[in-house]
Please model this.
Amino acid sequence: MQVFSNFSPLQHLLQRHHGKFFLLCDENTYRECYDVFISHCPAQYSPIVIASGEENKDIETCAKIWQALLDAEAGKDALLINLGGGVLSDIGGFAAATYKRGIAFVNVPTTLLAMVDAAYGGKTGVNFKHYKNIVGVIEQPAMVIIHTPFLKTLPTKHLKNGFAEMIKHALLSSAEAVDELLTINHLHVIDNEVLITKSLFIKQNIVEQDPRENGPRKVLNLGHTIGHAIEYAAMKNGYEILHGEAVALGLKVMLQLSVIKMNFDESTAARIINFIDKHYETPVWLSSLHSEMMNAVVQDKKNTNQQIRMVLLKAIGQPEYDVPCTLRELENVLNI
Ligand SMILES: NC(=O)c1ccc[n+]([C@@H]2O[C@H](COP(=O)([O-])OP(=O)(O)OC[C@H]3O[C@@H](n4cnc5c(N)ncnc54)[C@H](O)[C@@H]3O)[C@@H](O)[C@H]2O)c1
Ligand SMILES: [Zn+2]
Model:
């Protein structure tokens, strides 16, 4: 899978492509990004527009995409272009990977989170019964096109959302990468192509070593065991939290556990936690949902035989995966 920062490779792909091609958008990317996309990559598209939002990343929305493809008599040689954020590339990738046992798809991410994270790596899927990404397949997009001007219309909270994954990537990479991010004062100016590219390459390198997550790729779950548990508890109780906001809080918990269990440097952890606290609010409802979060942690598909296995850091750039943790250890840190 290749990543490009201009549209020519996609144009060439479309010129060579014999089957039908479809453009999947949600109502926001249809409004804000469709014209920009067409101006860079003109062709006769059949747009499929789905409702935006995590709550629509479900099998019913996926069925609508399958239906639209069927109605348009899309064959096995059809191509689906996913123009949107991580919700759209997750569900669009899943719809494409399963329609007629798999048609090709291309991701054109329009959010920071999708640019640095969700658009690569091949994880596709939908939520089911409040469980995040519990149904899905791993299928790589034919290519990913990064066009940072899409970020101009992205609301600030969604820039912050993507920035959390950039912090995660930096923590997996080097102290220099972390320092570079920690000097940023205003998260709404994160449209820096250089920083974005650095971040996505950290993920790409890790995925290439282990595309099906048998081992080393697990480090990308840094901060996500707790992050997903927060999202689960929020969704179940009608509260709203963005994936990246939950991951930022999950990274704080991970850092605290890393200090206790892995000898991670305490002052470094404090510096990063301070930065996260400055930019990400801890919702007031969170403390009332700890027990529900613990249930979610036990149910998490990454935990086997009821054992909690987490990714922790020995130091920045030195992650260790499958570190066994007890519920008690987690509870203690959550109550700090
Ligand atoms: N597959 C993976 O490896 C992976 C990795 C990380 C996250 N994810 C998933 O990604 C999802 C979150 O992705 P997201 O944060 O991109 O959310 P999203 O796709 O919901 O996008 C956020 C919002 O911004 C709107 N939007 C998108 N681009 C816009 C633009 N350029 N201008 C204006 N509005 C725009 C969308 O319509 C939506 O309302 C979660 O479901 C998460 O599970 C997947
Ligand atoms: Zn994530």
